[in-house]
Amino acid sequence: MEPNPLFDKYGKTLKPGDFLFSEGDSGDEMYIIQEGQVEIVKVLGGQAQVLATLEKGEFFGEMAIVNRIKRTASARASTGLKVLAFDRNGFQQMIEKNPKIALNIIDKLCKRLENTTNQLAKLSSANQKESVYLNLSYLFSEKGGENPDLNLKSLQDELGLNLQIPQSIISEELNELSRKGVIKVVNEQVILQDKKALQKLIKDNETR
Predict the structure, then answer these.
(1) Sheet harboring 38-44: ordered strands across?
(2) Could you tell me if 91 and 9 lie in one domain?
(3) What are phi and psi of 192, to 5 degrees?
(4) How many other CB atoms are found less than 10 A from the CB of residue 113?
(5) From the CB of residue 205, how many other CB atoms can be counted at a distance below 10 Å?
(6) What is the pTM of this model?
(7) Is the N or C terminus of the chain more exposed, i.e. has fewer CB atoms within 10 Å?
(8) Which helix or strand (DSSP H or E) is residue 120 part of?
């Protein structure tokens, strides 16, 4: 096995079912997945719901090193798992030594922040359907093109993390949009078929 100084310094290994952290915990670390999968889980209506399933190369828990807020959801290993765990100082050192990794993380953080900023005022009073439609519209517009497409799994995870709602509900909303001809799912890609219809659904839900 090749030496991995980064993992030797920052690595953690977990078994399936182990928790990296639980909802409500104080936190001071963010994580980057090296191997395996992590489920982001939140208690909604008294039941644990999976918001997203993250895989190799994805990161989570970043708000802990930004403003040290308590964890808003739990992170559970769904397989054998290896992650890099960075506190604020460790993240700074990693940025200095691994600029490509750092730029990728910063790019994703900026997109998440931009999405949150653009949608916050509307989402504060939006119902669940409108929240999904608004975020979906934003993600398609960010992709650009006449009929933009998004990876189905990545889209479901992004919506789950942004909106803090279960994957089952997101799937229901996407299926409804597909039945209405607003989107089409082909080879695990979600294609926007009718932009005007999506905007009309957003407007209709705003007036309810």
Answers:
(1) 19-21, 74-77, 38-44, 47-54
(2) yes
(3) -75, 115
(4) 11
(5) 17
(6) 0.65
(7) N
(8) helix 99-123
